[in-house]
Backbone:
């Protein structure tokens, strides 16, 4: 069962009579999933979400995940999202929290690669609590090992993390594609196409 309190902040920020985003609480599907959404909000960013303990642990990644191990991508933690959010692609209405268009850029499953110094697996949720987690992504776009490591912004109060590709056989110098040209893994649409279509569907 989902820890309902984990979603309290998520729900507090939203008016579910005005947004089609899920309220949460329907539970999981078995596999540990991940999703990367592109969110054209007040600033364009990627939202990186990993299924952990019945919710989606979430980070806003301004530049998006990179396949290049030299790129250290800033990842700012955001509130836990309900599992159903991995299916959300659409337009969040003007004046609502996070207003703007969301596409599912990539999705798939992940497995934990985090080990302690003796090579024993560390429980994934504990690894995140301790500020360092390694994992393998099997997505339609992203593949291979990645690490999330907690760091600090100089003088700031907010936590910051870095998302970095492992230097493994799936690493490449390709970086991240242009988010305005990127297509949804689910529907093949760009942000602009999805926004135009949503407008056409409206009253
Ligand atoms: Mn976002």
Residues:
């Amino acid at each position: 069962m989902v820890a309902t309190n984990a979603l309290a902040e998520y729900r507090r920020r939203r008016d579910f009579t005005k947004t089609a985003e899920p309220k949460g609480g329907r539970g999981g599907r078995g596999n540990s999933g991940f999703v990367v959404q592109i969110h054209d909000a007040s600033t364009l960013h990627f939202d990186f979400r990993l299924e952990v303990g019945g919710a989606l642990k979430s980070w806003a990644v301004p530049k998006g995940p990179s396949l290049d191990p030299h790129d250290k991508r800033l990842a700012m933690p955001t509130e836990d999202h309900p599992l159903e959010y991995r299916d959300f692609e659409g337009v969040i209405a003007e004046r609502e929290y996070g207003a703007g268009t969301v596409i599912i850029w990539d999705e798939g499953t992940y497995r934990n690669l985090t080990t302690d110094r003796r090579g024993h697996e560390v429980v994934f949720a504990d690894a995140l609590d301790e500020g360092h987690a390694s994992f393998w992504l099997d997505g339609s776009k992203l593949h291979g090992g990645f690490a999330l490591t907690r760091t600090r912004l100089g003088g700031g109060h907010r936590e910051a993390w870095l998302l970095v590709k492992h230097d493994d056989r799936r690493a490449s110098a390709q970086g991240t594609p242009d988010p305005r040209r990127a297509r949804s893994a689910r529907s093949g649409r760009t942000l602009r196409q999805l926004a135009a279509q949503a407008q056409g569907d409206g009253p």
Q: What stands out?
A: Residues 39, 41, 45, 47, 60, 98 surround manganese (II) ion (CB under 6 Å). The radius of gyration is 17 Å. Residues 3-198 form one domain.
